[in-house]
Specification:
- By secondary structure, the protein is mostly helical.
- The two termini are 31 Å apart.
- The protein has 2 domains: 73 residues, no CATH class; 73 residues.
- Helices cover 66% and strands 0% of the residues.
- α6 packs parallel to α7.
- The radius of gyration is 23 Å and the shape is elongated.
């Protein structure tokens, strides 16, 4: 059975720059020296980063004697926030187990909170499915290790495997209700 996966549209340039920055809060020497603080800010905004995040870059770049351009970074961050503060983005963040960053305009919060909660539901169900799949792997290993004369235990494990598979199918059906952000 093919599982539906949520659709996560993100502008390509933001994605490439976010990968360039990496998961850590620091910048490379090349990034510091490039001086493209608007793009760095745009990538940070697209990730929902707070204004204080610039201090992480300042710390990383101080090592090279470089000070970030706060105004350029903030202008870029504001542009990036327009990417972050969308139902699709906050939903995608939630499907990865991430919290909603408090950076979006108050007038958008109802829709964004609903989108985030829908994504969180998807993520919670995904976690339950993953745990059940782990249980299935354990059962299959146990069955593989059984001696031929353990027919009774093999039968009980087979029934447990069927019960878990059925539970996974039920969870997958429930999860489909949460496979995209709510519309406005």
């Amino acid at each position: 059975m093919k599982r539906l996966r949520p659709h996560h549209p993100v502008p390509l340039a933001v994605t490439i720059f976010a990968v360039f920055l990496g998961a850590c809060a620091t910048l490379s020497e090349d990034a510091c020296r490039s001086g493209d603080w608007f793009s760095i800010g745009a990538a940070d905004g697209a990730k929902g980063r707070l204004p204080g995040f610039l201090s992480n870059h300042a710390e990383a770049c101080a090592e090279y004697g470089i000070t970030p351009d706060r105004a350029e970074w903030e202008a870029g961050r504001q542009q990036g926030l327009r990417t972050y503060c969308t139902p699709a983005t906050v939903y995608a963040e939630a499907t990865r187990g991430r919290q909603l960053s408090p950076v979006c305009p108050a007038e958008d919060l109802d829709l964004l909170t609903r989108a985030h909660e829908t994504g969180r539901q998807y993520w919670r169900i995904e976690q339950r499915i993953d745990r059940l799949k782990g249980d299935l792997r354990d059962i299959r290993r146990a069955v593989h290790d059984l001696d031929a004369e353990d027919a009774s235990l093999r039968g009980r494990l087979f029934l447990e495997e069927l019960r878990i598979k059925n539970r996974i199918r039920m969870l997958e059906a429930e999860q489909r209700r949460y496979d995209r952000p709510p519309s406005a």
